[in-house]
Amino acid sequence: MNRRVSILDTTLRDGAQMEGVSLSVVDKLRIAQRLDELGVAYIEGGWPGSNPKDADFFSRVKGLSFRHAKIAAFCSTRRAGQMAEQDPNLRAVLEAGTPVAVVVGKSSTMHVTGVLRTSLAENLRMIRDSVAYLKAAGLEVVFDAEHFFDGWKLDREYALETTRSAAEAGADCVVLCDTNGGTLPSEVSRVVAAVRRALPSVELGIHAHDDTGVAVANTLAAVEAGAAHVQGTINGYGERCGNANLCTVIPNLQLKMGYRAVAGGDLTLLTEVSRYVSEIANLRPDDHAPYVGNSAFTHKAGLHVSAMRKVANSYQHISPDQVGNRMRVLVSELSGRASIAHKLGELPLAVELSDEDMRQMIRRLKELESRGFQFEGAEGSFELLLRRARPGYEPPFEVQDFLVLVEKRSERDILSEATVKVVVDGTVMHTAAQGNGPVNALDTAMRKALLEFYPQLDKVQLTDYKVRILDEKAATAALTRVLIDASDGEHSWTTVGCSTNIIEASFQALLDSLELPLLRRASS
Amino acid sequence: MNRRVSILDTTLRDGAQMEGVSLSVVDKLRIAQRLDELGVAYIEGGWPGSNPKDADFFSRVKGLSFRHAKIAAFCSTRRAGQMAEQDPNLRAVLEAGTPVAVVVGKSSTMHVTGVLRTSLAENLRMIRDSVAYLKAAGLEVVFDAEHFFDGWKLDREYALETTRSAAEAGADCVVLCDTNGGTLPSEVSRVVAAVRRALPSVELGIHAHDDTGVAVANTLAAVEAGAAHVQGTINGYGERCGNANLCTVIPNLQLKMGYRAVAGGDLTLLTEVSRYVSEIANLRPDDHAPYVGNSAFTHKAGLHVSAMRKVANSYQHISPDQVGNRMRVLVSELSGRASIAHKLGELPLAVELSDEDMRQMIRRLKELESRGFQFEGAEGSFELLLRRARPGYEPPFEVQDFLVLVEKRSERDILSEATVKVVVDGTVMHTAAQGNGPVNALDTAMRKALLEFYPQLDKVQLTDYKVRILDEKAATAALTRVLIDASDGEHSWTTVGCSTNIIEASFQALLDSLELPLLRRASS
After folding, report:
1. Does A401 touch chain B (CB under 8 A)?
2. What is the pTM of this model?
3. Higher-confidence residue: B26 or A108?
4. Is the pLDDT assigned to residue B3 strictly greater than 50?
5. Integer CA distances (angstroms), A476 to A48, A438, B225, B384, B438, in order
6. B 188-227 residues with CB below 8 A of A?
7. Which among B297, B414, B443 is the nearest to A240, CB-wise?
8. What percent of chain A has pLDDT over 70?
9. Contacts of A125 (CB under 8 A, 6+ apart)
C-alpha cells in the first residue's frame, strides 16, 4: 500500500444539493468531525460567498481541531470584467480562513459563451486571476474544471487550456469534473490519460456524478489513468443521481486496488460514518449500498446460506468486518430450512424448544408473514416469537382494553389522549395519558401503567419509529407496517407491528418493545 | 446502431431474491408483459425445479403471447454422480416448456471442491451432460458460469475449461458471472478479452452484481471486450447490493455506445417500466436512479436553473424524454428566486398575483417548510398555496371540529370511528363514519359531509398514501410527514401534511386532496 489518493469529501457542499437534504450548521460540524475520524484529506465545507449558513459554518469550524483533514472553502472564478480582489465570492473564501480553497471555473466553450456569456479569452483570465489571487493569499488551491469532459468533446484544446491556465497560475491540483455525469469509464480513461500527458507536473483529480450509474467506475478509471485526488460524497449524496459515493470508492481503492485513501488505512469506521451521515441528513439509509448497506452482506437463499456454512466467504467478496459491517441471515418465506436453522442457531433459546414447539413457532411465523409482518428487520419481535413458544411462558402484562382519541374543536389545540387497561400479575391498572400524537399518548399511558411493577422500564427509551405503507394503492385503507427501535442504554432491539389501522400496528410494535426487555431480564 | 446486445432480464428470478421482495405469480406475469413491451430479448421467469410458485408461473405464462421476448427457465447442472435424465431440476425445465434454458454451473475450483464437494472432473461432466441434455431436447441453452471471475483468479485454466465444456456441449451462449460482485471493470475487461480469444466462436455474456458499486460499468466493460449478451434486473433488484441495473445499462448501451439493446430501439417506456416494477414489487422507487429516477433530471440550485434557461441541456447529459422521464425544478429553501420564478411560471395562476401577494405567498411557503412541510413532491399542495393567495379566494368548505376514536375492548374487534363538523356555504354538516383505520374513517366521514354539495368528489379517489417519520430519533413523538396521491380518473395530484400527530398530518393532506379539485373546477 504505497500509492496514495487524496480524498476530498464534498458531502457538505455538493451533497447538500440533494433533493430532500437540509443540513444545519451544527449538523455540518458534526459530520465534519466524523469525516476527520474516518481520515479523509479534505473536507469541503461549503460556499461562503453564496450561502450565509456556510459562512457561519466556517467561523465555527475554526474552533474545532482536526487530526487528519484540512477544511476547504468553495468559490467560483471571479466575475467577467472585474478584478479578483473586488470579487465578494473570492474575498469570502479569505474571510472563511480555511487553508484550502476549491475554485470552480468553466472548461466547456458552450458554457463560457452560452451560459456565462463572456469571451473564451476572458474566461482563461478569470481562471488565472482567481487562482493567483488565492495562491498569493497563501492558500492551497484546488481548481475544479467544470464540464471538463463535455468541454473536451466540444473543443479539447480549449478545455485543456483552462486546466493549463489554472496550473500555470499555481493551482496545486486540477480536478476534471464530469458535471453532468454523462461520461462512461472508457472515455474517462482516455481523457485523463491525455491530460496526464499534456500536463505532466500538476496533480490531477476527478469529480464524477452518477447520471449514467458509473460515477464510482469513472473515479477508479481516472485513478488508474493517473489522477491522485478524488472528490465525492458520503453515500453518494448529491443533485440528480448524486456524486461518486465515497463509501464505495474508498474501499475499492484500498481493499481492491492497493491505494491508501484514508489516513491510517483503517476502514472499520466506514459503515458507521455512512449511517451517521444518513441519520443526520435524515435520509433513509440505502440498505443495498455496496460495503456499508444493511443488506450488503445478507444472505437469504437457502443455497447460499448452506454454502456459507461450508466455506466462509464463498458468497462474499470481502469480509464485512473490514468495513465495519456484518453478515446477516434472513428469515423469509423464500429461504429454506438452512436459513431458519442458522437464524435460530444465533439465539440460545432455540435449544430449549421441542421439535413440536419449533414446528408451531414456524407455523406462527409464516402466518404472521402472510398478514404482512416481516421479521427481516425486527429481530426483537422474532425473539419474542421464540420466547413465547417456550414452555412455561408467562406474559409479564396483558392489555385488556385501550382507547385512543384525537380531537380538534374550533380554535383549540388538537388533543391526543389514550386510555389503557392492563393486567399485571392479577392487578388491573386502568390509566390514561396525553401525548403530542396518538401513539405518543399510548406510549405514555403504557409506561404509567407498567412502571410501578417494572421500574426497569424507566431506562427503556424508544429511539426510532418508522412507518411503511405496504399496499400504497389502497391509500388510507392500506396495510401499514410499523417498526420501533428501543434501547435500555446497553442493548437495543427492533419490533414490528402490522395492521390496516396505523394505531393498532404502532401499538403492537410498542407492546413488543416493552415486553422483550422484561422477558430477557426474567430469564437472565 | 448496427451492433446488437441481447438483454436477458432476470428480475423475476435473481431480482426476486432481494430482501423485502415477494412477487406473486400474477405479479410476475404482469412484469413479464411489461418487459416484453420494453423489448428485451429474454425473460428469465424463475427456477421451476426449486420453487413451486415458479412452476405455476411457467404453466400460466404459456397462455400469454410475447412480441419480442423469449421466456427462459433457470436450473443448475445435474447432481454429482447422477444421470442428467434423472435430475428433477433439469426435468422441471423441460416440463416448464420454455424455448430457452439457463443452466448454472460452477467455474471456481473452490466452489467445486469446497461447496459442491465433488471432483473437478465430475463438475466438468456435470456441465457437459446438463447442457447436452437440454440441447437434445431442442432448447436454446445459456450457460451461466458461476463465480467465473473469482474462479479465474484461483485457477484460470480450470475456469476456462468449464466454459469450454459448456460450449462444446452445444451451449448457445456462455455467460461469465461475477457472482459475489467483487470484481472491478479493468479486470472484467482483461478477463473477458482473454476468454474471447480462447473461445472465439461461442457468444459470450456477462452477469454482474453490484457489491463494489460497478455492476453497470462491469457490464459495459464486458460488452466493449466482446460480450454480446447482458444479464441484469430492472432497477438493479437482487440480493445484497443487487444486480446490474438494466434501467441504466440499456440506455448507456443505446444512447451512449451505439448498440441496439431492445427491439425497436425505443426507450421512451423505460421510466414507466422502472416505476411499474417498483410498484409491483412494493419497493419505494429510487428517486436518484440514473435515467429513470424522479430526481434524475431535477434542478434545485439557482445557478443551474438560470443556466438551463439560457442553454437547454447545459446541465443535462441527455434529454429526459428519450427515456420517458421529465425535467423538474424544485421549490426549496436552498434555491434562489430563479427556481421559484420557474416553478411559478409553470402555473398559469401565478400571473394573477400582485407582487405583494407573491411575497406573502413565498413567506408562507418558507414558514411551512420550516415546520417540516416539503412541497418538492407535493405539487398539489403547492398549487393550493397559490390559489389561496389569489384575491377573492373562497374556501369551498371549512372543517370546524373533528374527533377520531380508536377503541379495543377485550375480545371485540378494534373499532375506528371519526366525526367531522364541516361548514359548506353556511350550512353545518355534522356527521360520522367508521373505517378500517383512523385515517380511512376520517376520509369516509369527510366524503359523507361533502358529497351532497360537491357530487363531483365521487370521482376523486385516493390512490396512494405515504408516511415519513422526519426526526426518527424522537420515536413516537416524532414529526410526521404524510403524502397523499389522489386522482379523478383524468388528472392526479399529490398533497402534503406535517405534524407530530400522524392523524393531523394525514387529515391536512386529505383536506388538500379534496379541496384542490373543487378549486380547479371552479376556476375553469
Report:
1. yes
2. 0.75
3. A108
4. yes
5. 45, 17, 52, 21, 9
6. 210-214, 216-218, 220-221, 224
7. B297
8. 91
9. none
